[in-house]
Amino acid sequence: MAEGFVDSTSLDPQTPLSPSDLQLGEDEVDHFPWEESPDELPSPYLLVYNVKPFKDRNRHVFLRGVPIIVHVESIERHLRGFKVRPSTVYLMRITHGDFTWSLKKKFKHFEELHRDLMKHKFKLRVIRPLARLAVPLRREPGVAMAMPALPHQPEWASMRQASSKQKRLEEYLNSLLEKSFYRNYHAMLAFLDVSELSFIQDLGPKGLEGMILKRSGGHRIPGLNCCGRHRICYQWSKRWIVIKDSFLLYMRPTNGVISFVLLFDKGFNVQVGSRETGAKYGVMIENLSRTLIIKCSSYRQACWWKQEITNLAERHGQDFLTDHRFDSFVPARHAVPSRWFVNGSGYFSAVADALNQAKEEIFIADWWLSPEIHLKRPARNNHWRLDVILKRKAEQGVRIFVLLYKEVGLALGINSEYSKRTLLALHPNITVMRHPDHVSSTVVLWAHHEKL
Questions:
Q1: CB count, 10 Å around CB of 181?
Q2: Using DSSP, how many helices (H) and how many strands (E) does the chain show?
Q3: Is the dihedral of CA 254, 260, 263, 268 positive or negative?
Q4: Contact 215, 288 (CB under 8 A)
Q5: Which terminal Cβ of the chain has fewer Cβ within 10 Å, N or C?
Q6: At what angle do helices 107-130 and 159-176 cross, to 10 degrees?
Q7: C-beta of residue 221 within 8 angstroms of C-beta of residue 441
Q8: Helix, strand, coil percent content, the chain, rounded in steps of 5
Q9: Element (H, E) at 183
Q10: In angstroms, rounded to a whole number, what is the distance separating the alpha carbons of residues 150 and 171?
Q11: d(Cα 452, Cα 442) in Å, to the nearest integer?
């Protein structure tokens, strides 16, 4: 947003907003090229590795050609402190294809969105012509360009008047979401609590999302503990948090990088309150490896986050929250495709075929990996050599992750450092991690070497 344009537009929340405030002219763009060019869109799942900065105008968030429908279901009135006038909260249910989620917004959030979109439009009208970047308008058939006014009404109005305002807010949002120019703007995406990870089928249903303050520390993994966990030295950082069916993650809004993933496990727990979190309006989310503290803007919002996170975990992630046979973290799976091999020749040949069919990701966990091994023999050329296969798939856009055992050099000569260095030099899409770090983690007598 350009703060310098604020005084040039009617942004006073008390000033009635006319229906033409957000109208687009004939010389202004309403569609983005990537919405109409399927060749430029990556595989839906690969968007996980292509999250852009949150203010980037080329973010691929919504499903192409799928409408977004908003329904304002109800309103809630809350008294806060010694205020005479109640605070009105609008409960919205939004549908986008097979995805449905709920939002709670106050009227001030609608006003903030409207002002952000007005600044966005003003920036387009002033900056774009100066830069000679005007693009001919592309209209959708049957879609009018004029926008309805944002309805204004006192917060203490009667329930009948509030119901009428509820309907007008619904029409207002649905009209905005018909136009790409407003729908894909970062202020609208933040208002709807959506990101590139919201509508990927392989990541499960659309869960709770939003910008929060996250406290550093809280790790329980040996070697990663810091004094922030003990509430002595820590810092708060703004992060975009995403709740899914079996995990949550948070991203840096400045660059879209996924900073941390917290899995739901038997130690999963959510608490609210300053006593449990050490922060006003704090929410504590913990599992067996970390206690994560986030801060909300109000106690009501903190309770809403706790309710939504708990409901999503219990409804979709129950398999990971309970005990299972042999103390496993997952239940026994039935009718799982599997195959027995008599010797290494058949196994490595099948591995080569599987690697060759990969379209999105390859995961390899190995105790002793030799990059130059030929997976199919007799070897007449290097086509089926492991490093050649991985490089070929990486060049095709497949993401490859390799977990190697980090040996104790005095006891074993498997040279995992050479394997890591060789694989990393092949392509940027290849990631290699050696584990464990025996010094910082204090783990010595342990290895990735389990047998069936």
A1: 21
A2: 10, 13
A3: negative
A4: no
A5: C
A6: 30
A7: yes
A8: 30, 20, 50
A9: helix 180-183
A10: 10
A11: 27
Q: Give the DSSP letter string of 118-130.
A: HHHHHHHHHHHHH
Encode 134-143: b = buried (16+ Cβ within 10 Å), e = exposed: eeeeeeeeee
- The tens digit of pLDDT for each residue in 47-71 reads 888 889 999 888 889 998 899 999 9
CA dist 382 and 59 (Å) reads 40
Structure tokens at 252: 């840096």
Count other Cβ atoms within 10 Å, centred on residue 409.
12
The overall longest dimension of the chain from CA atoms, in Å, is 84
Q: Which two tokens stand for residue 452?
A: 């069936």
Q: Which pLDDT tens digit goes with each residue over 248-295?
A: 999 999 999 999 999 999 999 999 988 888 888 999 999 998 999 999
Rg (CA), the chain: 26
Closest C-alpha to 34, from 59, 51, 53: 59
Sign of CA dihedral 78, 83, 84, 89: negative
- Count the neighbouring beta carbons within 10 Å of the beta carbon of residue 99: 19
Rounded CA-CA distance 270/306 in Å is: 6
Query: What is the Cα–Cα distance from 239 to 210, expressed in whole angstroms?
Result: 8
Distance (Å, whole) CA 82 – CA 215: 31
Task: Tell which residue, 260, 235, 241, 73, has the closest CA to residue 167.
Answer: 73
Average per-residue pLDDT for the chain: 82
Structure-model confidence comparison of residues 158 and 237, the more confident one: 237
Tell me the three-class secondary structure of 194-261, residue by residue. CCCCCCCHHHCCCCCEEEEEEECCCECCCCCCCHHHHCCCCCEEEEEEEECCCEEEEECCCCCCEEEE
Residue type, 78: H
Q: Token pair of 49, please?
A: 């590795």
**Structure token digits, residue 221:** 């993994």
User: Do the Cβ atoms of 265 and 287 come closer than 8 Å?
Assistant: yes
Report field, pTM of the whole predicted structure over 0.85: no
Using alpha carbons, select from 409, 406, 414 the residue that is nearest to residue 434. 406
Residue with tokens 């290849």: 430
| pLDDT at position 17 | 44
Answer yes or no: are the C-beta atoms of 57 and 184 closer than 8 Å: yes
